[in-house]
Design a protein that fits this description.
Layout: E1 4-11, H1 14-24, H2 30-38, H3 43-50, E2 53-60, H4 71-91, E3 96-100, H5 107-119, E4 125-128, E5 132-134, E6 136-141, H6 149-158, E7 162-164, H7 189-203, H8 206-209, E8 215-217, H9 224-237, H10 248-255, E9 256-259, H11 266-276, E10 281-282, H12 292-301, H13 306-321
Parallel strand pairs: 1-2, 2-3, 3-4, 4-7, 7-8, 8-9, 9-10
Antiparallel strand pairs: 5-6
Helix pairs in contact: 1-2, 4-5, 5-6
Amino acid sequence: MDGKIGLEEHWAIPETMGDSEKLVGTSDGWDDLRRRLMDTQDERLHEMDEHGIELTILSLNAPAIQGILDTKEAIETAKLANDTLAGEVAKHPDRFRAFAALPMQDAEAAANELTRCIKDLGFVGAMVNGFTQRDVEDSAIYFDVAEYRPFWAEVAKLDVPFYLHPRTQIMSRRQPYEGHPWLVSAAWGFGRETSIHALRLMGSGLFDEHPNLKIILGHLGERIPYDIWRVDHRLRRNPVGYACKREMGDYFRENFHVTTAGHFHDPTLNCAIAEMGVNRIMFSVDYPFEDMIEAAEWFDNCGLSAEDRAKIGRQNAVDLFGLDLS
């Protein structure tokens, strides 16, 4: 399928490159990954052309801003990354859009930076890499807590999507992974940490206050589509302090969208469609941590109807972000 749109596609600036090096290690593939993260205008565009991807929404690597302990540094680095990305997008505005990186260490500063990126730089939303750290290494602040309510009010006012992207749990809180380092990141820990964060948002009353909020999850929903029935089933019997106006599944189906980023598997896709509906699923690659060729060949040949392939591959993103691709 030509004309696909991808929206979990990463890049990096020198100031955040070390985060990806820590994640993947200095293996034989690091030099290749580093080159692809730093490139937007050459190899990336060539691969997009080769695999029928018309447009990608670029986002900073992880955890990047969310891992900076000093609030002032986080604010400055986010601004630097966003200004740099705006310059890259301006070189090929027909092929790229941008997600804002946000200094969530300071909720007011994050709201201000998002507003600047949307109104002044023409960005289409934000991507934030999970919980944020602040002041001390042993910190993990989730965005359901009260200090972020003004931030979410601004997101709702701007009416733009917020992509909640994974990050690894910090070292001091990795007891469940002890002795099994393979569990920590993309193979399992990414989904675990992101799904817990998303469920916290659903269960905090946030979507009762702001019913128009739009949250995106990658990796076909970080396993939530598979389990959301059981979450509601058990909460009906024992709500244990759950005080929201609606069931968790209602918020998931009405306030969340998911992408295929890094999860190229028909049964999982079918589960997400069955739980959420075809209009809430969007194609993505997770480049350069995943291969465009693998993502595109799977998607172009998976068992979708032509109509559903066009929706997931392109139209749903056009509608969600209000893209003008004429």
